[in-house]
Predict the structure.
Amino acid sequence: QVQLVESGGGVVQPGRSLRLSCAASAFTLGNYAMHWVRQAPGKGLEWVAFISYDGSDEYYAHSVEGRFTVSRENSKNSLYLQINSLRVEDTAVYYCAREAGSSLDNWGQGTLVADSS
Amino acid sequence: SFELTQPPSVSLSPGQTAIITCSGDLLGDRHVSWYQQKPGQSPVLLMYQDSKRPSGIPERFSASNSGSTATLTISGTQALDEADYYCQAWDRGTDVVFGGGTKLTVL
């Protein structure tokens, strides 16, 4: 069945950088737009970024624009999220999710990013 | 900016009907999706395009969207339905927006 597996999370000092990965299996990543969504501890879901199926379009939440970059390597069935200038408020579980129509129909298990302060 | 508003919590007894609302400006003009998230788990798509159920979602879950309010209804609520529920729509065709979430407690 469709599987999305995030990795790359960890404890990072504020101001430092981190790259998250999302490995897709059991479907052709290149046929789907993808999203990153995060959830701070005890809080709700917050959309972070979108990338079109071929990587030609990217959109970001205002809270991360200019610091986060989403990318993909369809040949490797992989999605990425580069996080620069980490802030305390970026602490969250980060999920990758597959877009199907107007919904996010499959989600990974998430990877935790935490600041070390 | 476009926002979706949900009640923070809903509580009811097993067997009752749960109604969770999601309000936003002219929400009926957009497609709404609903997600269920149980503690320690990832969100799961529950409803899409306002009222459609993905395969595997029980028929006791239904939804509608009209005017400025979308509604998720859980008929014959069971203890295993206890979870957080999020509505979701799109803003400007480019940004995904989630409601703040509703914690459903089955007493």
Q: What stands out?
A: Strands of chain B lie at 9-12, 18-23, 33-37, 44-47, 61-66, 69-74, 83-91, 95-98, 102-106. DSSP finds no helices and nine strands in chain B. Chain B has a mean pLDDT of 96. The interface with chain A takes residues 30-31, 33, 35, 37, 42-45, 48-49, 54, 84, 86, 88-90, 94-101 of chain B (CB under 8 Å).
